[in-house]
Amino acid sequence: MIRMGFHQYRRLLHFVLIVLGLQLSAAGLAQSLTFGLFGRLPDALTPTAEATLPLGDFTLEARLQRNALGIGLASALEFSALGRLSYGVRAGLGFAGWGVESRIGGTFGPVAASLEAGYSSTLRSDLWVGDEALGGLRVGLLGRYRLGPRETLGLGLGYKRNLAGLASGSGELSYALRQEQTYTFGLGVDDSRLYALLGWRGELDEAGTLLEATLRAGQYNRLETTLTLPLDEELNNLKLRLTAAYPWAASLGVEAYRFRADASYDGGFSLWLRYTLSFGGTE
Amino acid sequence: MKKLLAIALVSFGLVAAQTIAEITRQVQANLDRSPWEATITGRVQLPDGSSQDAEFRLQVIPGKEQLARVEFKKPAALEGNFVVISDKEVWNYLFLTNQVIIQPRAKARVEGLGVNLTDLGDFNQLAERVTLRLLGEQNTPAGAAWRIGGSPKDASLGFASMEILVLKSDPRPLAITLRDSSNKVLADLSFSNFRRASLTPQILRKRPADAEVLRRN
């Protein structure tokens, strides 16, 4: 009986998702709709849908997948070239549990800072496939300070307490020097593992092809590279992302026009294909 | 005698009005002739009340699909930030976060530093927002210039009075001063390195390819 109720509930959720998606697109309210299909070996498969629509000065975000949905509200104050202040909240609910998170970030003149805090009663990836496979409390602080026109100091602090009550912290201090290219140097600690940070970012040709590579090496090892090629004047780019880490984990992402594909391995293989429809306004 | 004086005053007013309209027309025609760029330097008062050295590069493509780019060099905290303004949209690039925020022109705050710099490239728009009057003439290192005073038609522009110097031989702005209601200088900027340039929309819209694009409505 309970099992039957569970299936009916799941079917109802399916209908809600479909109807909501159709309503948003039919009413022309949604500013963007992203449909996707996520699969993880051996047997996880779910459609995904993301929608944003305007609500006055706010933007309502909705995320849907087979067994969970999430609703978010975000807004920002713009100060032109001087900076901006953005903020938002999001809540997720699924068969596996629930989660909430909030974020606030601001840039004003030489200072940029953001603070994120969230709690989830289950793995965040159970509520949204794109999120990390960790539950519990998560707090993150990021700050950047411009020492001069060409020098920027960065600070990142993080704290996590998982569902088993185990706590871990992280911190990273970096210095970026911008010349024709940008060079980044830093030191960090991730859950008692020390590492050094080296980064390079620069344009490769006149067309504006841009490569960014960041290496964290030591007791924690991770290489992130992104190659971006402008395709046209309409802000369309071809983006290739490659991340490799040890202990072994890797991800490869390709993004062009409305399509996006992300493949990853972190003990298991997964693939996420997405297609975005834009209707103007906030994305 | 009084009647004669009144007629003389009215006539003088009409001539002055025609003159300022003619100057505005000449400046607009000159700036609309071809794409151009200029460096604007001086001091501006920031919203926190402090006064800062300022240096911007203004690039303008005139015409039906006018496009302007304001690139910040000083204050140092803003170097690398730029604003691109078209009829429909305003792009605002923040170097520190590598973000391009795109807003509809009608809702975007372009002023930012107390002065809408694009008005200097669009004299017709300036004349729509500000009541202009000819104050006289002045010699400058660049040559003889008209001194033009202005008061905003709308208090929301953020200043109480303005003064612009316009070069007579090549009608274009040379300097602008904005003051608040207590006559305190809010911005004192001068134009230099004015030159005609072969600018294209691609050049003015140039941005880091990996910048995060945020659209707002």
Ordered list of secondary-structure elements with their pairings:
The complex is a heterodimer of chains A (283) and B (217).
Chain A lengths: L1 H26 L4 E9 L3 E12 L2 E8 L2 E11 L4 E12 L3 E11 L2 E10 L3 H4 L8 E13 L2 E11 L5 E12 L3 E9 L2 E11 L6 E9 L2 E10 L6 E10 L2 E8 L2 E7 L3 E10 L5
Antiparallel strand pairs in A: 1-2, 1-18, 2-3, 3-4, 4-5, 5-6, 6-7, 7-8, 8-9, 9-10, 10-11, 11-12, 12-13, 13-14, 14-15, 15-16, 16-17, 17-18
Chain B lengths: L1 H30 L4 E10 L5 E11 L5 E8 L7 E4 L3 E6 L4 E6 L18 H7 E11 L2 E10 L8 E7 L5 E7 L5 E12 L4 H4 L7 E4 L2
Parallel strand pairs in B: 6-12
Antiparallel strand pairs in B: 1-2, 1-11, 2-3, 3-4, 4-5, 5-6, 7-8, 8-9, 9-10, 10-11
Tell me about this structure.
The complex is a heterodimer of chains A (about 280) and B (about 220). Chain A has about 280 residues and is mostly beta strands. Chain A has a domain at about 1-95 and about 115-135. Chain A has two helices and 18 strands. Chain A has an 18-stranded antiparallel barrel. In chain A, strand 8 and strand 9 form a beta hairpin. Residues about 1-5 and about 10-30 of chain A have low confidence and may be disordered. Chain B is α+β, with helices and mostly antiparallel strands and about 220 residues long. Chain B has a single domain, classed as Lipoprotein localisation LolA/LolB/LppX (outer membrane lipoprotein receptor (LolB), chain A, Clam). Chain B is built from three helices and twelve strands, in the order αββββββαβββββαβ. Chain B has a twelve-stranded mixed β-sheet with strand order 7-8-9-10-11-1-2-3-4-5-6-12. The interface between A and B is large, with 39 and 37 residues. Chain B: Keywords: Lipoprotein, Signal. Chain B: It holds the Pfam family LolA_like. Chain B: InterPro entries: LolA/LolB/LppX, TP_0789-like.
